Amino acid sequence: MELLNAIVALTNYVLIPGMAYGSQLALGALGVTLIYGILRFSNFAHGDTMAFGAMITILVTWGFQASGISLGVLPTALLALPFGIAGTALLLVATDRVVYRFYREQKAKPVILVIVSLGVMFIMNGIVRFIIGPDDQNFADGARFIISARDFKAWSGLDEGLALRTSQALTVVTAVIVVALLFWFLNRTRTGKSMRAYSDNEDLALLSGINPERVVTYTWLIVAGLTTVAGVLYGLDKSFKPFTYFQLLLPIFAAAIVGGLGNPLGAIAGGFVIAFSEVTITYAWKKVLGYLLPDSLEPSSLVQLLSTDYKFAVSFVILLIVLLFKPTGLFRGKSV
Amino acid sequence: MSNPYHDDRGNKDASITRRGGAGEIPYRKGGPAVKSEAKSAFLIGETMTGGYGKGPDILHDCTIAVDPGEIAVIVGPNGAGKSTAMKAVFGMLDLRGGHVLLDGEDISALTPQDRVAKGMGFVPQTNNIFTSMSVEENLEMGAFIRRDDFRDTMAQVYDLFPILKEKRLQAAGELSGGQRQQVAVGRALMTKPKVLMLDEPTAGVSPIVMDELFDRIIEVSRTGIPILMVEQNARQALEIADKGYVLVQGRNAHTGTGKDLLADDEVRRSFLGG
Amino acid sequence: MIVVEDVHKHFGGFHAVDGATLTIREGSITGLIGPNGAGKTTLFNVIAGVLEPTSGRVTMGGEDITGLPPHDLFHKGLLRTFQIAHEFSSMSCRENLMMVPGAQSGETLWNTWFGRRRIADEERALKAKADEVLEFLTIEHLADHKAGQISGGQKKLLELGRTMMVDARIVFLDEVGAGVNRTLLNTIGDAILRLNAERGYTFVVIEHDMDFIDRLCDPVICMAEGKVLAEGTLAEIKANEQVIEAYLGTGLKNKGLVQGDTVGA
Amino acid sequence: MSETMRNVMLFAIVAVLIVGSGFLQSWNTALLILNMGLISAIMAIGVNLQWGFAGLFNVGIMGFVALGGLATVLVSMQPVPDAWSAGGMGVLLGLLLGAATIVATVQVYKRMPRGAMRSLAVLAILIVGFFVYRGVLDPGVDAVEQVNPALEGYLGGLGLPVLVAWPVGGLLAAGAAWLIGKTALGLRSDYLAIATLGIAEIIIAILKNEDWLSRGVKNVVGIPRPMAYEIDLQGDPSFVERAASLGLDPVEASTLYVKLIYAALFLVVLLVILWMSQMALKSPWGRMMRAIRDNEVAAEAMGKDVTRRHLQIFVLGSAVCGLAGAMLTTLDGQLTPGTYQPLRFTFLVWVMVIVGGSGNNFGAVLGGFLIWFLWVQVEPMGIWLMQTVTSGMADGYWLKDHLMDSAAHMRLFTMGLVLLLVLRFSPRGLIPEK
Amino acid sequence: DDVKLGILFGFTGPIESLAGPMASGAELAIKEVNDSGAFMDGATVTPMRADSGCIDNGLATSNAERLIADGIAGLIGGDCSGVTGAVLQNVAIPNGMVMISPSATSPGLSTVEDNDLFFRTAPSDAREGQVMTEVLQDRGIKSIALTYTNNDYGKGLADAIKSNFEAAGGEVTIYAAHEDGKADYSAEVGALASAGGDILVVAGYLDQGGLGIIRSALDSGAFDTFGLPGGMIGESLPTNVGPDLDGSFGQIAGTEGDGIDRLVEMAGSDFDATSPYTPESYDAAALFMFAMQAAKSTDPAAYGPKILEVANAPGEKIYPGELAKGLQIIADGGDIDYVGASAVELIGPGESAGTYREIEVKDGKNETVKIR
Ligand SMILES: Nc1ncnc2c1ncn2[C@@H]1O[C@H](COP(=O)(O)OP(=O)(O)OP(=O)(O)O)[C@@H](O)[C@H]1O
Ligand SMILES: Nc1ncnc2c1ncn2[C@@H]1O[C@H](COP(=O)(O)OP(=O)(O)OP(=O)(O)O)[C@@H](O)[C@H]1O
Ligand SMILES: CC(C)C[C@H](N)C(=O)O
Ligand SMILES: [Mg+2]
Ligand SMILES: [Mg+2]
């Protein structure tokens, strides 16, 4: 019983949140990694693109909700997702045409593109706040829980609850599907391979008859899909607030880099490394130990390695340690 | 330049931007191909004048032509503009004078991609493979514009370069210099091009491979594909050449059959190393 | 001078260098040949400190230099060129050369502020030297061109030029000839011979051009599959069945090379 | 137009912009922009040293700037005797023990042969060291933080003149950079970015949470100034008189006076640093750095100790940022760790360098001034824009309200637009590297 | 003629969602005065917004300089304690400008050397610590887990709560900071849950980390009831969290009844008048105008000393919507005691004395259950 309680507590406070957060980061990192791999720069506008995608989806979701359309237990937002993706795709492709293409044609140094993306970030930042405002928006509906803590306690008779939110399960499942799809696409399809070829050697791709503009467009389309899905899932799970999406940028980059920039598998792994290091290192073991140890030994302090103040710092230290032993990231950060 | 040996080259911006592979082919707006009445060779760059970007002219009234069944070889000192002439023919730089004709069409306005679609194949001097992709994928990419079944072509390429079959699944970037060269030529052959352009295909390959490469090049040309190539192994190249061009400072200095040039004392002395 | 003892270099499961053992005599010009992928460049990289050997030992004049970083080896007089040119692309050709000599007083920050006179003198000497080398390589007109914008062959020349800026003890040349005009290659050959004779440089030359090897090198070492296959004079090597099969091919006979048609006579 | 002419023109334009805001808005505004511009220019030079000259991508600028800020507190605030007597020694001892642990670890790591024994020993030292360190430090910290927490609760500084803090800020940043460089540069410099990003966050986390050091998020206010306070000047009859003789009222005269003195101080620092980096750049040292940036492998083969040089320039650039950070905190008159945000202190500086022209010191300086000017002035432009757009709409119309409410967000928007425009028409920066 | 009032809030940055209603609150007061025509013989007041970034000292001081250059007669702001201190030190004091902050609540600002130029319509957090302890004790709570937003506001408040509660014999099981605007709070909630406690007190912002923590804690079943200090009180919280929040309680500066209700009514649907510090903003603006009226001058040196006079007794009590009446009384030589929307009562160094409403969430609404 005590052991069960300990396991449940750990699952509830470490495992499940870590999985969900990890998947969210992974989805974001995938997009970052893809742009890095194929278009050769780190896209600082990524967080705000996620916000944009989520925003469009939210607006459509509200429309559906107002007209009474819903998905039952699943969030209506899923129904609105294709619209969000389409809107984001439109925005990204337009941005590319208006902004990035020029620099590609000029053969500008990639770092210029990075800074350009910073400019785009500022602009998208403005647009999103302009349309939906800086406030928190709630758009989740459907069943919030698959298992709620209270029900679990009643059902199992344990002291500890176990909660699994619909959004958490959705996030993990989606992440798995998306990654599998992306892999299949890049390694097995003609278009996917042409994207890798372009990523490897632009000139030679051109000389092989691959149309660079098409590759670029495809990339943005995929990125639109990835960012919107990531943005919406994150919004469903936590809440939508433009500023948070900007803040997400940092852990997302950390995830992409620790996994090995440019490598999709790495993005996934990186997401989990970052998420779990944040959750575990600062976890206070008092409760778990309290269940496991006999009463006499029960800890009086929190048994916490470091206070949560340093949560962020800790995840970076972990990151540095990983890089110490695997300097190119967990998976060789080379190309898509 | 992504090459396994040089992985660490310039740490620059490697963590926010990816280096390597970034193109040098300048962007240009394409135009249509126009029928041309001019009666001339199958592929000809006629009186080409031009240079890089806004820089000075590198080529001056340079003419290069090749016909089906022919091998045309360009030789000349380093920096003469041989590679530049090839790039000009392939539309990788803006001509300030002259034009390029292919099969009775003026293709001067076409972009490089369009020229690939018209059946031109090109192996650049450097950066001529996809380093992160497997050898097989490199060949597949060579056949990118082909919609038909290209397995037999691939088998032919493997026949020609058996080592490639062996390393089929290895990343091309992990091959040695000579092996990479073989991949590059193989990739170009995969297009089944109407005309093949090679920039120093034998640089750095071992004698045995070089012989085979030359043999294969002759074979390819016998199938009726015109071949235009730049060579520094000029004597071997001129031996198999139907036509030879000696370029000096972007101008045609000598033109003739391969044999003629080999026999020409001045050419031998100044360009072929005696 | 350089002794390589049972060096292995593995990439994953692949044995690029697989137990190479060889000795390079002081004052010699040693040719290193072998089929593509034999492991020549990899061995170079191991000796020059770019790659850490999986196992084995490299000594130079009796001193163990295994695993020393390239910049230390440079100061011990070991220089190398790269098979694929490694120019400093945004610097002019002259600067490419001028940066080479070590221990320039202008490389100390303090002097850049408080020792300007001395730097100026040094720079003048360096510039003269660099121009001399450029002229020697027949690329003096490129002195102020950015090295990134010169032709492929010219870059190779520049690579060679860098080794001429300092007094080296041993120079490793990785395919200087590939892509270099044959007439110029002869000049380079002359230079190598002269440096060898006058300044006592030891050279190790990787090259696929048998004419070139023939003219310069003695002894010649042939590698294949990561091991040393044969060693001796070029004539001996050419007669070696294994070498012919793995590397030279029979085609050579047709091209007249085996009959000893050498260049530059 | 010759290049020099063009560059002079560019600087002239920036000067006109700043002077223009002096005429149109107020001279106080203009001088404030100038002062912040000077500081920004110094930061930009620091980053330019690292990126433009050595290709080191440092995204931890914020951390070094913050360390500079910390230096001002540690140097110029008055010590808090109560806190010292309460727990100062404990804290000091704890820190020493911590440092000793690290030194011991490194020594053991270096001395002992590779193997399980070494790992064990290192681990043991670290664990024991950590607990001893916490054991000694924590009570000291608690004691210190109990001392008048609303106002003090920290150890205070040395009570030295604040100008001393500027070089100290540089040194502090240099020290941190050295530590980072030692670990990150030696490894694989590609990942320097993430290392710096992380360490900057760690530095901020320390500043925010170690209250005994600089009051954490409770901020240190009232950092002394290198010159008189406006209020004192306003109360000084001779000053008032002189102001009057210039036709200025005392309030305005005093504020201008203070800012002018700052401007002069900052300008001197900027010029010295600019001169030093220009000299270095144009010497063989600069040539070597460019060679390293272009191609590390080749530079290494040509005998240049790339790792050492990277470390050198990384430390230098960071020190410059630290110096700028100390100047900034001095100008602010307070240390507020919460204000250190990557957007403002890392990305904005990067924008300055890139827009100005990386690899060119003058470019960096220009970028510093220009981008700061825009950062400050774009908001009124945004509001003005919105007013113009909505002028036709009726009061209270939802769109008008919505637009006016969004005006502040126009700052970021316009900033982005300006950035894109500059980059569009001069992708290598306004004053590109030659 | 025209009198300008500067409004310096963080329209961008971490409290950008609070700044909008706050500014609207201040502007509502100004509009009310302008509509009345009773201000200083028919003068009009123009609000001028500027961004403080909440945490960007450089920006805030520049913008404050700019406002002063534009000729403002008083500065409503800043919002966050950090920038408020910076602006006060670097701009207001040197220029002799009066600042009334509606929201900077850091205890440190009470003792700052301000030349009598700084006032605030919000109480210092030191006071809230006492009030919260009373509330907790009255509800029989013995132990709390305490988390705060990691800035001077959160830390100061949490310090106050902790020391008061512990002095009163309560136990604080964990005292942990959280950063606002972060992507995920699982780690924090994990630690808080592990430490346990009767309730979780969240000294944060209701649309920032505070919300994230509460969501996460409820979802995982870590805590059911929450203690909500002022930064967490606002209609958006129950709306966003849902019925699970019922039963949680807290307190916010303000009084019951009239003041705030009237403001809510006046604001209508234009903005949310119950948004944190919005009433205080309205009051800050009103105080400026009353003081100017009383001094018959817009010179800070002249009207500054009047602020305490109009804010406190004796005099006729003035509520939101009655600004015209107040102005008239002053013009007629009478005295007012401005109560406003947040029960303004300035004490000591010119800050709100701090009457608090004890709030409990019932049926998804914040209900005032008591005044303290
Ligand atoms: N980084 C690497 N990873 C994996 N394999 C490698 C790597 N570098 C080299 N190899 C392999 O090692 C073998 C030897 O390569 P090396 O470049 O040394 O050959 P080489 O003798 O110099 O050939 P060439 O004459 O063609 O230049 C090749 O088969 C190559 O595929
Ligand atoms: N990207 C470039 N930008 C500007 N100038 C260039 C560029 N590439 C080459 N050049 C210049 O053009 C001239 C001709 O170069 P090209 O590469 O055509 O020579 P090449 O005949 O192919 O020589 P090699 O045999 O050495 O390869 C050279 O003088 C070189 O400086
Ligand atoms: C706007 C408010 C939430 C600010 C907070 N009271 C502070 O002092 O920082
Ligand atoms: Mg060439
Ligand atoms: Mg090789």
Automatic annotation (TrEMBL), chain A:
Transmembrane portions of the chain: 20-39, 51-73, 79-99, 111-132, 168-186, 215-236, 305-325
InterPro entries for this protein: ABC_transp_permease, BCAA_transport_permease
Topology of the protein relative to the lipid bilayer: Multi-pass membrane protein
Keyword Plastid included in the entry's annotation: no
Record keywords: Amino-acid transport, Cell inner membrane, Cell membrane, Membrane, Transmembrane, Transmembrane helix, Transport
Location of the protein in the cell: Cell membrane
Superkingdom assignment: Bacteria
CDD domains: TM_PBP1_LivH_like (cd06582)
Similarity remark: Belongs to the binding-protein-dependent transport system permease family. LivHM subfamily.
Entry protein name: Branched-chain amino acid ABC transporter permease
UniProt source species: Arenibacterium halophilum
From TrEMBL, chain B:
Gene3D superfamilies: P-loop containing nucleotide triphosphate hydrolases (3.40.50.300)
Record region (Disordered): 1-32
GO molecular function, one term: ATP binding
SUPFAM superfamilies reported for this sequence: P-loop containing nucleoside triphosphate hydrolases
Segments forming domain ABC transporter: 43-274
Matches recorded under PROSITE patterns: ABC_TRANSPORTER_2
InterPro entries: AAA+_ATPase, ABC_transporter-like_ATP-bd, BCAA_Transport_ATP-bd_LivF, P-loop_NTPase
Stored CDD domains: ABC_TM1139_LivF_branched
Compositional bias annotation for Basic and acidic residues: 1-16
UniProt keyword list: Amino-acid transport, ATP-binding, Nucleotide-binding, Transport
Family membership noted in the UniProt record: Belongs to the ABC transporter superfamily.
Entries under PANTHER family matching the protein: BRANCHED-CHAIN AMINO ACID TRANSPORT ATP-BINDING PROTEIN LIVF-RELATED (PTHR43820:SF7), HIGH-AFFINITY BRANCHED-CHAIN AMINO ACID TRANSPORT ATP-BINDING PROTEIN LIVF (PTHR43820)
Name of this protein: ABC transporter ATP-binding protein
Protein species of origin: Arenibacterium halophilum
TrEMBL record, chain C:
Pfam hit, one: BCA_ABC_TP_C
Boundaries of every ABC transporter domain copy: 2-250
Signal sequence interval, chain numbering: none
Alphabetic keyword roster: ATP-binding, Nucleotide-binding, Transport
InterPro entries per record: AAA+_ATPase (IPR003593), ABC_AA/LPS_Transport (IPR051120), ABC_transporter-like_ATP-bd (IPR003439), ABC_transporter-like_CS (IPR017871), BCA_ABC_TP_C (IPR032823), P-loop_NTPase (IPR027417)
GO MF assignments: ATP binding
Domain of life (superkingdom): Bacteria
PROSITE patterns per the UniProt record, alphabetical: ABC_TRANSPORTER_1, ABC_TRANSPORTER_2
Protein name listed in UniProt: ABC transporter ATP-binding protein
Species of origin: Arenibacterium halophilum
From TrEMBL, chain D:
Transmembrane residue ranges: 7-24, 30-49, 56-77, 83-104, 116-133, 153-179, 191-207, 260-281, 311-331, 343-362
Record key words, sorted: Cell membrane, Membrane, Transmembrane, Transmembrane helix
Compartment(s): Cell membrane
Keyword Cell membrane: yes
Domain of life: Bacteria
Principal localisation: membrane
Topology class, membrane: Multi-pass membrane protein
Pfam family, any one: BPD_transp_2
Iron listed as a keyword: no
Alphabetical list of PANTHER family matching this protein: HIGH-AFFINITY BRANCHED-CHAIN AMINO ACID TRANSPORT PROTEIN BRAE, HIGH-AFFINITY BRANCHED-CHAIN AMINO ACID TRANSPORT SYSTEM PERMEASE
Record-given protein name: Branched-chain amino acid ABC transporter permease
Organism: Arenibacterium halophilum
